């Protein structure tokens, strides 16, 4: 019985992380940031609710910060570049990506950096802008999953937050923004030293096939920086699960092909 219950908890964590990753890569990243897909209202409302519940983040802030990242890639204005963090830059961004760097940049966003269609509406003001409330709701769900044990619920909620914001979540945000901006340096050396530029002066690289699979395609990072407006980051469905899902949403009428970033 205990083994079955433990498996249920692990499965719930995996489902929560996976759902948030899919929302991030399809809705927040490919859709709202780069305009490669325009999701329909049912998918949009599901994604907005999921972002609130599973991350507590505001979509407009995620989009604003990520667009700034592309405009200032690895330059002084990049909000989460290991290149701009000197020695130990890679582990700094890996650990602090969502819990520090994103939050810091979000506070500095100007009105011009927020797309008009993402500016707060009534439901944002009532519910979704209260990210803390989403985290309270998530704590309640995990506590219920642990049969009313608030201590275990808090531990589960805390673990979820760490994974979502940094190590694995937000489509591997800590991994992608740190390890895949290390340039030609090997993994060991760039954990200590500053990232080394590629021959063309850039620092973006693609991850291994396994990491591209685990991040739903976000690991194809150099491909994405080279072709930001493309829906697909890799032609393989296995190496770009997010792109595959996005295409299926379009195929079944739940989304349409995008026309570029919305202002």
Summarize this entry quickly:
With 263 residues, this protein is mostly helical.
Describe this protein's structure:
The chain has one domain (2-257). Helices cover 60% and strands 2% of the residues. It is built from twelve helices and two strands. The chain has helices at residues 2-33, 41-54, 59-71, 89-107, 122-128, 131-145, 150-167, 169-179, 187-192, 209-214, 221-226, 241-251; strands at residues 37-39, 255-257. It has a two-stranded antiparallel ribbon with strand order 1-2. Helix 4 (89-107) packs across helix 7, helix 4 crosses helix 8 (169-179) and helix 7 (150-167) packs across helix 8. The model has no long low-confidence stretch (mean pLDDT 90).
Helix content: 55-70%
Task: Determine the strand fraction and express it as a percent band.
Answer: under 5%
State the total count of DSSP E strands: 2
Average pLDDT for all residues = 90
List the secondary-structure elements in sequence, H or E. HEHHHHHHHHHHHE
In total, the number of domains comes to 1
């Amino acid at each position: 019985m205990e083994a079955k219950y433990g498996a249920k908890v692990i499965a719930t964590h995996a489902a929560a992380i996976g759902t948030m990753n899919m929302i991030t890569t399809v809705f927040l990243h490919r859709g709202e940031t780069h305009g490669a897909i325009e999701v329909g209202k049912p998918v949009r409302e599901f994604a907005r609710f999921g972002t609130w519940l599973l991350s507590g983040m505001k979509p407009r802030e995620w989009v604003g910060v990520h667009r700034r990242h592309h405009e200032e890639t690895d330059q002084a204005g990049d909000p989460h570049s290991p290149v701009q963090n000197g020695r130990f830059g890679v582990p700094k961004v890996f650990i602090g990506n969502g819990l520090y760097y994103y939050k810091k940049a979000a506070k500095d966003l100007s009105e011009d950096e927020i797309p008009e269609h993402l500016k707060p509406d009534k439901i944002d003001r009532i519910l979704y802008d209260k990210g803390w409330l989403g985290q309270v709701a998530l704590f309640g769900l995990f506590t219920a999953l642990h049969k009313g044990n608030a201590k275990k619920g808090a531990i589960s909620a805390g673990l979820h937050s760490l994974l979502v914001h940094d190590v694995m979540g937000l489509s591997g945000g800590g991994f992608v923004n740190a390890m895949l901006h290390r340039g030609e340096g090997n993994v060991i050396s760039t954990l200590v030293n500053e990232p080394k530029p590629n021959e063309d002066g850039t620092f973006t690289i693609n991850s291994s096939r396994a990491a591209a699979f685990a991040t739903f395609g976000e690991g194809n990072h150099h491909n994405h920086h080279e072709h930001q407006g493309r829906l697909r980051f890799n032609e393989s469905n296995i190496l770009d699960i997010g792109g595959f899902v996005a295409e299926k949403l379009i195929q079944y009428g739940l989304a349409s092909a995008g026309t570029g970033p919305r202002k």
